């Protein structure tokens, strides 16, 4: 099975040695997205809710570039620098997903790239 690179200008460009996503068969592996505005490659703001919205927008853009939507995500990993923001993540996530929701992990980490407060990656399964 071959793998192909997924790229969109509607999500931040990779800031390291990785691709926005890789498609292998009907499975798409999304790299972590942080709250960078694609046009400026700057963090949207210091406000956590604005950061979370931007991350979900970036994840959505990569899903669309791969031929799906967030509703095809089978697994999502959410990395937070402050786990007390968990309820806010749930509220915002519900605006970008429909039931059935993907499997999910949410963990607190000591730091994230560019000093952001949230990063999300995932695995998407496209219809055959």
UniProtKB/TrEMBL annotation:
Matches recorded under InterPro entries: RidA, RidA_CS, RutC-like_sf, YjgF/YER057c/UK114
- Per its UniProt entry, which superkingdom is the organism in? Bacteria
Q: Which PROSITE patterns match?
A: UPF0076
The cross-references to CDD domains, in alphabetical order and at most eight, read:
YjgF_YER057c_UK114_family
Pfam families xrefs: Ribonuc_L-PSP (PF01042)
Family the UniProt entry places it in:
Belongs to the RutC family.
PANTHER family from the xrefs?
Answer: 2-IMINOBUTANOATE/2-IMINOPROPANOATE DEAMINASE RIDA, 2-IMINOBUTANOATE_2-IMINOPROPANOATE DEAMINASE
Protein name, per record = RidA family protein
Query: What species does this protein belong to?
Result: Paraglaciecola algarum
């Amino acid at each position: 099975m071959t793998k192909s690179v997924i790229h969109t200008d509607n999500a931040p460009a990779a800031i390291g040695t990785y691709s926005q996503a890789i498609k292998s068969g009907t499975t798409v592996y999304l790299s972590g997205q942080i709250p960078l505005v694609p046009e400026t490659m700057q963090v949207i703001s210091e406000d956590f809710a604005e950061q979370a919205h931007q991350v979900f927008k970036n994840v959505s853009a990569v899903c669309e570039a791969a031929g799906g939507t967030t509703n095809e995500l089978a697994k999502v990993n959410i990395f937070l620098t402050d786990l007390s923001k968990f309820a806010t993540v749930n509220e915002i996530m519900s605006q970008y997903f429909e039931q059935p929701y993907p499997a999910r992990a949410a963990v607190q980490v000591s730091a994230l790239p560019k000093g952001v407060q949230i990063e999300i990656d995932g695995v998407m399964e496209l219809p055959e």
